[in-house]
Specification:
By secondary structure, the chain is an alpha/beta fold. The chain contains seven helices and seven strands. The longest helix has 17 residues. About 40% of the residues are buried. The structure holds S-adenosylmethionine (SAM).
């Protein structure tokens, strides 16, 4: 079944069980592990996380492929993951890594953590999949301390007019259903700006770097900050 939001009428919270994609989760667990070396994803994850320190929250951690790349300067990672199978794999990955990682069920739109509790938030291939980007980024802003950092690696719209219409067509038809709620025509940079983050340096890159351009190839890797109040 595709994404089926179950929102509490009282709190507006999205139940983590609402993200239930067992087939996609199994597929993602297999291909993402291969992409670490085959597509150079391991190197990108390293760049995404290098230099981070303090308390970190990772949103939609999947099977935990980022965990091994957190530097020793990070004191604690809280990794939010709503999908049950991916969360189990993330728990196993957490046991193997050096930095303390606590894997927690939850959804980006209603993060189950205190306000202003984190020095950094990590968004890695997740803004494409959340049900409500605006709400998810408002939550990221809430849980970051003023001046806190966002590290992001996201795919989104790109590649000119033809690719743009292919991406929009996919989003309106099969893609989200086949790929666990993923969309290929979102604009992560615009969304971060709209959510009130101050953008730091970011770069656009293609994944894979060589070979055919896919609707998911147009990526951005960079940093943003919650402004000081
Ligand atoms: C393409 S996977 C990326 C996983 C991981 N971040 C990575 O870099 O490999 C997308 C992830 O977003 C999660 N996700 C989907 N909807 C979500 C939501 N509303 N809140 C938080 N995570 C969500 C999925 O369960 C999945 O783990």
């Amino acid at each position: 079944m595709p994404f089926n939001p179950i929102r509490s009428a009282r709190t507006g919270a999205v139940a983590p069980e609402a993200v239930h994609h067992p087939v996609f989760a199994r597929y993602y667990a297999r291909v993402s592990a291969g992409a670490e070396t085959r597509m150079g994803m391991g190197r990108v994850r390293e760049r995404l996380l290098t230099g981070l320190s303090g308390r970190v929250i990772e949103i939609g951690a999947g099977n935990g492929l980022n965990f091994a790349h957190y530097p020793g300067t990070v004191s604690e990672v809280v990794a939010i993951e709503p999908e049950r199978l991916l969360r189990q794999l993330a728990v196993e990955a957490a046991l193997r890594c050096e930095v303390p990682v606590d894997v927690v069920p939850g959804a980006a739109e209603a993060l189950p953590v205190k306000s202003e509790a984190y020095d950094a938030a990590v968004l890695s291939l997740v803004l494409c999949s959340v049900r409500d980007v605006r709400r998810a980024l408002a939550e990221v802003r809430r849980v970051l301390r003023p001046g806190g950092t966002v590290r992001f690696f996201e795919h989104g719209r790109g590649g000119g007019r033809l690719m743009g219409s292919v991406q929009r067509g996919l989003d309106a038809t099969v893609w989200p259903r086949l790929c666990g709620g993923c969309h290929v025509a979102r604009d992560p940079i615009g969304a971060l700006r709209e959510a009130g983050f101050a953008l730091g340096p970011y770069r656009r890159l293609l994944m894979p770097e060589r070979g055919p351009r896919l609707p998911t190839s147009y990526c951005v890797l960079g940093t943003a900050h919650r402004p000081l109040d």
